[in-house]
Amino acid sequence: MNPPRPIRPEVVPAPDERVLILDYGSQYTQLIARRVRELGVYAEIHPGDWAGEQINAFAPRAVILSGGPASVLEAGSLRIPEAVFTLGVPLLGICYGMQALALQLGGAVEEGSPREYGSAEVEIGSASPLFDAIAVKPGDDFPRLSVWMSHGIRVKALPPGFRILAGNASTPIAAMSDERRMWYGIQFHPEVRHTPLGVVILKNFLEKIAKIKGQWRMDRFVDGACERLREQVHTGRVLVALSGGVDSAVLTALLARAIGDRLSPILVDTGLLRQGEVAGIRETFASFPFELRVVDAQERFLDALSGVADPEEKRRRIGRLFIDVFAEAAQTLTGIRYLAQGTIYPDVIESAGLGGAAQVIKSHHNVGGLPERLPFELVEPLRLLFKDEVRALGRELGLPEHLIRRQPFPGPGLAVRVLGPVTAESVHLLRQADRIFLDELETSGRESATSQAFAVLLPVCSVAVKGDQRAYEPVVALRAVVTDDFMTAHAAELPVDFLARVANRITNEVPGLSRVVYDITGKPPATIEWE
Ligand code: XMP
After folding, report:
1. Read out DSSP for 231-270?
2. What whole-number distance in Å separates Cα of residue 80 and Cα of residue 21?
3. CA 423 to centroid of ligand 1, rounded, Å
4. Residue nearest to ligand 1 atom 12, measured at CA
5. Residue ranges covered by each domain of the chain
6. Best of 529, 530, 531 to mutate for ligand 1, by most ligand atoms within 8 A of CB?
7. How many Å is the Cα radius of gyration of the chain?
8. Cβ atoms within 10 A of the Cβ of 129, count?
């Protein structure tokens, strides 16, 4: 599957207590890493066939083997690298990881019948530190655990040295252990919320078995990251593109802390940002020790988009022009040796082709293509952080809360929210309506109840009567969604009187808009954006 990749030099401090997660392709692998990090333990995901010398160099304090879609019985399916067994550290095999453990250590696996998918219960028949703090319910002889199963293969015979910890009728060996070597296998998924006590199991594995203290915190991260950045950027200046989003803001604040005025941030004003955005970014960074350069490219973007109705063509033109404008601005600066990018861990995992839930949002697609255009060395100090960790880092660096909690905003900006061709007038109309909607959400305290909210300008006119005049003007749609991962979403249940107030304000305060509608479609089938 995944060929081993060389270790990249990271600008991230590597804590002593780190956990290695070997990925066998499960859609949940990224979740394992998130849960482990939520427990204050630093974890990295690497391919299931990572080379032995890399595993040894990583020197983990514990290894977790993920699940995976393949069958361990298939020819050519991945095996656990031998180096994992000679590390002398605790192992936890989950699903595929458990089956591979059983097979490689001299046990046996078989096709389960029936296959087990979904919620199940297992009975814990044997005490183990892995199941510490999982109590027996009144009336039961043994503790029972609600778990999430997703497998067609099961362990049939234990490897030598192992015993059964838990099971049920269809999976008699649902958990196994060799307590002496601290090797564990569980058939179910502790990382998903459908295994309610899954976090307790992971915590037991890390704290009770691997004796890891759990000291991975952003306050500790800052000092180490700054030190490493100063080592990497020992001379010359660093260029960074600010976008108004969380990642680029945190990146800039971290770099400013590390190298101060040797930072050259550029903000390209595409004219497609929300109302007040450029001023807001200026204000946020006003007290920082660098000069923020704002490049006014509004006309160039409007020209490039003139007459273009196809959303993908809009995206292509915006992406290309962004790179041109940014590269031109960069070339007028002297002494630049580095380009900083706000790549975060989900981007790294995704582009490395590792398993894990596919991420839709490309936080820095705007500057994608720049490293090829500009002869600068890349600096990516956030590349091992999850989004929630980037936010925690932003707080640690003193960025304002409203910036840290920002909702996502698409890189192509308002161009994909003006349906059809984009003009200065249409962007102006949309911006005002959008501002009113967001203001009302904020003042009514509803902003945090939506994951993303915005207005869309439709290429449709409808009749309105304003004063005594008949008007025939465009319609605005409001969209507000609730989602965890932006892959699926449902419409926020905003009260009708709230929506009516927003509609009232928009039609009264924005001349040129006739009507306001609310989009109640879920994703799927509709996407969050209209284009
Ligand atoms: P969809 O519309 O696909 O959007 O349901 C999912 C999430 O991705 C954001 N989005 C984009 N972000 N460039 C971006 O940086 C884009 O071209 C883009 N298109 C959609 C969208 O706002 C939502 O959060």
Report:
1. HHT-SSEEEEEE-SSHHHHHHHHHHHHHHGGGEEEEEEE-
2. 11
3. 21
4. 410
5. 12-209, 218-404, 418-518
6. 529
7. 26
8. 16
- Answer yes or no: CATH 3.30.300.10 is held by domain 418-518: yes
Q: Which atom of ligand 1 is nearest to the CA of 452?
A: 24
- How far does residue 522's CA lie from ligand 1's centre (Å)? 15
- Dump pLDDT digits (tens) for 401-440: 989 999 999 999 999 999 999 999 999 999 999 999 999 9
Ligand 1 atom with the smallest distance to the CA of 365 is: 15
Judging by DSSP bridges, how do beta strands 336-340 and 377-379 pair with one another? parallel
**CATH of 218-404 among 3.30.1460.10, 1.10.40.60, 3.40.50.620, 3.40.50.720:** 3.40.50.620
Alpha carbon nearest to ligand 1 atom 14, residue: 410
Whole-number Å distance, alpha carbon 221 to ligand 1 midpoint, is 30
Question: Ligand 1 center to residue 203 CA distance, Å?
Answer: 35
Residue identified by tokens 């690298």 is: 81
Contact between 180 and 209 under an 8 Å Cβ cutoff? The reply is no
CB-CB contact of 449 with 458 (8 Å)? no
With a cut of 90, say whether residue 277 has pLDDT above it: yes
SS (H, E, C) 84-153: HHHCCCCEEEECHHHHHHHHHCCCEEEEEEEEEEEEEEEEECCCCHHHCCCCCCCCCCCCEEEEEEEEEE
* Average pLDDT over the chain, rounded to an integer: 91
pLDDT in tens, 59-111: 999 999 999 999 999 999 999 999 999 999 999 999 999 999 999 999 999 99
Hey, what are 183's tokens?
Answer: 């090797």
Q: What is the pLDDT of residue 367?
A: 56
486 CB under 6 A from ligand 1? yes
Residue 377, pLDDT score: 92
Cα 64 from Cα 97, distance rounded (Å): 8
Distance CA 21, CA 43 (A): 7
Ligand 1 within 6 A of 359 CB? Answer: no
